[in-house]
Amino acid sequence: MSTVLASKEALAGKRSHPWLVAWTAGLVTTVLLYAFRDYWPWAWQYPREWNVPLRFWVSDFMSWLVNEFDLGLFTFKELTRSLSWLLHWPLAAAQSLLSAGFGIELSEDEMLRLPRLSWLGIVALAVILGHLARNWGLAALTGSCFLYLALFGQWDSAMVTLSSIIIAVPIGVTAGLLVGIWGFRSARVEAIITPVLDLMQTVPVFAYLVPVLFLFGFGPVAAMIATIIYATPPMVRCTMLSLKLVPTETVEFGRMAGCTRRQLLWRVQIPSARPTLMVGVNQVIMLSLNMVIIASMIGAGGLGFDVLSSLKRLQFGQGVEAGLAITLLAIALDRLSQAFANQPPPEHREQPTSWLKRHPHLGIALAVILVTTGLGVFVDALRSLPENLTLTTGPFWNDVVSWVNVNFFDELDAVKSWLLLNFLIPVKRFLLQLPWVAVTGLVALAGYQLGGWRLALVSASLALFIAVTGNWEKSMISIYLCGISVLFAAAIGIPIGIWAALNNRVHRVVQNIIDTLQTLPSFVYLIPVVMLFRVGDFSAMIAIVAYAVVPAIRYTDHGIRQVPPDLIEASRAMGCSRLQLLRRVQLPMAMPEIMLGINQTIMMALAMLVITALVGTRDLGQEVYIALTKADTGRGVVAGVCVAFIAIIADRLIGAWARKKKRELGLA
Amino acid sequence: MKNSKSLTAVLALALATAIALPARAAVPESKDSIILTIHDWTGQYITTHIMGRVLEEMGYNVKYQQADYIAQFAGLESGDLHVAMEMWETTGKQAMDKSLATGKTMDLGETGMKAIEEWWYPYYMKEKCPGLPDWKALNKCAEAFATAETQPKGRYLGGPVTWAGFDDERAEALGLDFEVVHAGTDAALFAEIQSAYERKAPVLAWVYTPHWAPIKFRGEWVNFPRYTDECYNDPKWGLNPDMAYDCGKPRGWIKKVGWKGGEKKWPCAYQAVRNFKVSNQEIGEMIGEVDLEGKDVDQVVEAWISKNKDRWSKWTECS
């Protein structure tokens, strides 16, 4: 004790390291609180009696909303139900068109059946769109993605999934655009929207599935609405951002030309904001596809259901094939939307008068679809590919998993046990022993150092919320699991990112791998991982690392590539070796970007928490999952908000740090 | 797209190849679809589709809707969902009683199947632990079931926390030297069993039937003191005078549950659902055909329908 105090005084005397003093004091307090935990037990483990029963309030509020809230002419539930009735029409139409075909009742006992669009026609359409958007290369890519769906027997499910995507995406984009415009026009609205968006993006989807089910009923529409809630925020952000970035000259010019406010928006600002807006559209598409698995848990059907049900039967092969179908669908839609976004603006020239001459691609596409679908009435093979022409590699993958299991289990088990006993379990115990008062205080201190008293206040009150709602212990387990996973993800991802940045061929290969990792539903690899590493934290960690490593690679790669070339030239001229260049110039300059990557890694790790609940963790993710299966709205929402708050604390602290660093490097 | 859709319609009409379907034979009380819920295990898919096919034969419109096993009660109470074919006494009784108490759902009787859920091990473990299946043998060979993290205790893999199996309590009450690990889903649970089974490695886990696992993996259930209601409710009962749960898991019925409003809307259909009776044996065999032999589940159901016409036509009799 006395030595600690003495060193404190010595440090305080110098005055040159005020932060060091503060941190030492903080850590000493932590140790003291732990040492005297028998005297002040309330400061060590948050007392159960102090819990605020927020989750019950939320549940009560929800049941009031569903059962009693009356808007006068109709109840709230009637309002949400009619909304879901309204949305069910376009969804049903898309499903009939792409997957089920139409059945029109002519009279009491006659039914007219119209076929769905032919698979051949849709593959052709994918090719034509690819060519229209860029070139034959893209056409080959999109065409083969869709051909995979047909050849591997995924067509029926894929079309169910696609039909909900093509309805959800336009709704998400339109809603996002309108809200974004509103936020752009009014600063007050923006101030309200921004935290709401933060929550929408960080609260795990499972947390709001139950309320969505209550309000919108069971079925594909509820799943679609959950998808829209999840996928829309980036569109709102992109809209606000892109409208702000429109050069003032352009806007001034529009004003001078006598535009009304509405004309200015739709004729000037939105067209000039198009590239960034298209990034938003692209994000909406990708996030909608991310939701496929979760949506299928509440009745969306399609590919997500196939993945889940084949993994239930431990048929990994079929699961992988269905999962890959989701990935390929995502890649095709992603590349198409990006290509359309990056298209050069059309040149102004005489437009041919006939519709067909103006839109030759669409004309051809329409003709192909009509002919193949029409012929499909006679030829079964055009309606759906005959089963004996489809392929499957399912048994192969099942055998691979078995083979690895039988031959390498012991080696894998040894590595796992060593890591668990020497690293994971000690860290977990340590975190669970930390006094909650001290942790909250240290978070506040970090906030104050990095961003001033406001950040300190925000971070500390978010941490306090977690304690007050009785989720402290589960949150610490979540932080342990995510923290360790982020460490591993960074240790793997940053070197790969550096390698990819320095070598173009590696860059291309890595890009493809991380695209796949990001869109392949994690459930596909989660179950084989359980076979090899047993149920428990280790399997959960592997699944989190596999998903969260992506931004660590991407941002490192990007950050190093963005170092100004003249700076590199200058360093070379001064005689830097390649290693020195990397260590002294490229890495430090890329550091803020890399930290953003780490920030994203943390976000993704937290997003994966709920999925890892499926292999039996005991954290906030499990809490949310239990709430889902018990249909307990309050429990799920509160635990979900805790996940979001951890994410927000991490995000704000790292963001503040990166800004500070950027200023120091003269990059801002 | 809009253009192409209407054009397709016109084209198909012009081709005049429309297939006219014969009228539905019987007149159902309501043409609205009866919505049956499906969950995520094959047995339930089969029983639900058998029921669905029978209702279709009667002339009803039927829809299948995926819903969570427990969360579905919200839908059954509001009338979004109509009939759930498998509610297990062992796992769903609590939720079902709670829902029945609202008066918005109704008990539609037993399915004839009996649920068994218990600690299970493959036969090859008998060599390493000769006293099995008696539960008293477990402590003698706890080490044989141990892993690095649980050493020297044995490792028992339980079901998801939500299944409410009271295994932590059971291990404590019976003084078992076993650590209870919870799998998050049933996929994870059976993945680990399969992994161990392939390697002939030790495993002790929660297995239930009707399911494909006890068909595919050869093994048996541990014999615990037989379950009674008092055992779960009264600490004094059983071997351990201070704790409840000193017995095995309950074995019990699998029931059908329905939305109350459906009784008025489709009385004959509800009668047929009540009459539905199958056995563990036949459903178990069908599960095996689907999950192990890889047959198409709808074909398996169809085969049952054509083979058992006598049986199900009795279900459809309605007064």
Give an overview in words.
Chain A has helices spanning about 1-15, 20-35, 40-45, 55-65, 75-100, 120-135, 135-150, 155-185, 185-200, 205-215, 220-230, 235-245, 250-255, 260-270, 275-290, 290-295, 300-310, 315-340, 355-360, 360-375, 380-385, 395-435, 435-450, 455-470, 470-500, 505-520, 520-535, 535-560, 565-575, 580-610, 620-630, 635-665, and strands at about 100-105, 110-115. Chain A is mainly alpha-helical and about 675 residues long. Among the domains of chain A are: about 1-95, no CATH class; about 395-665, Orthogonal Bundle (MetI-like fold), CATH 1.10.3720. In chain A, a hairpin with a 2-residue loop joins strand 1 and strand 2 (about 110-115). By secondary structure, chain B is an alpha/beta fold. Chain B has 15 helices and nine strands. In chain B, the strands form two sheets. In chain B, strands 1, 2, 3, 4, 7, 8 and 9 form a seven-stranded mixed beta sheet that branches. A two-stranded parallel sheet of chain B has the order 5-6. Chain B is globular, with a radius of gyration of 24 Å. The chains are: A mainly alpha (about 675), B alpha/beta (about 325). The interface between A and B is large, with 69 and 64 residues.
Task: Identify the overall geometry of chain B.
Answer: globular
Q: Identify the most extensive interface between protein chains.
A: A-B, 69 and 64 residues
Query: How many alpha or pi helices of chain A?
Result: 32
Which overall shape of chain A is indicated by the principal axes computed on the Cα atoms? Answer: globular
Beta-strand residue fraction of chain B: 15-25%
| Rounded radius of gyration of chain A (Å) | 28 Å
| CATH class annotation of the domain at 396-665 in chain A | Mainly Alpha
Beta fraction of chain A: under 5%
Using only C-alpha atoms, the radius of gyration of chain B works out to: 24 Å
